C-alpha cells in the first residue's frame, strides 16, 4: 500500500545521489525529487562534452578525450561546491564521482587507463560522502527503448552491447559498494517520474533508508 502522506511530511537525506546506466531516467528523477524536497540539483551536463557525439559514433577513437572532458568537468563542479556551502540547502545529484572511473575502466585501453589514473590522482578529488545513493536498474531492452523515445542525436548510434557492458559494470560496482546507504530500484517495474503512486512509494523508501543496502522491486499484479 502506498502512503497518502506528501513528500513534505518526510525528512529526506541532505545529500542524495541518483545513479544508473544511460537511459535509466536519473536526471528526470533528480529534478522531480529536488522539486518535491525543496533541494538544489547537481547535474552531469553531458551535453557540454564536445566529444560525446563522436564517442558514440566511434568509441575507440574518441573515448579518451571524452573521458578526460568529463573528469575535468566533474573536478570543476566539486571544487565549486567545496568553495561554497554545499549543504546550505539539500543537494540532489544525478552522478557520483566514482562513476567517472567506472566509465574509464569500461571505455579506455590499458595505456589510456593508466594515463587517466595519473590525471585523476593529480586532481586529488574527494567528493563528500552521500547520505544515500539510489541506484536505478533496468534491462538493456528497457534502456534502449527509453533512449529511442528521448531521441537525443548523440545517442542515435547507441550500441546495445556497449550498454550491456555498462550495466554489468554498474552491477559489479554496487555489489561491492558500502560507502553510503544504498537503495536499489527496479526501474523497469516502476516509473517514479511519470507515476505519482510510484513516486510516493520511492519517496517513502528514500526517507527511511538509513543504513546498509535495501531494495525496491515491486512485483507486477497479474489479473
UniProtKB/TrEMBL annotation:
Active site, renumbered: 94 (proton acceptor)
Gene3D superfamilies: P-loop containing nucleotide triphosphate hydrolases
A single Gene Ontology CC term: cytoplasm
Domain Deoxynucleoside kinase, residue spans: 16-206
Keywords (A to Z) from UniProt: ATP-binding, Kinase, Nucleotide-binding, Transferase
Transferase keyword on record: yes
Binding site for ATP: 20-28, 146-150
GO-annotated molecular function: ATP binding; deoxynucleoside kinase activity
InterPro entries found in the cross-reference section: DCK/DGK (IPR002624), Deoxyribonucleoside_kinase (IPR050566), DNK_dom (IPR031314), P-loop_NTPase (IPR027417)
Pfam families linked to this entry: dNK
Protein name: Deoxynucleoside kinase
Source organism per UniProt: endosymbiont of Escarpia spicata
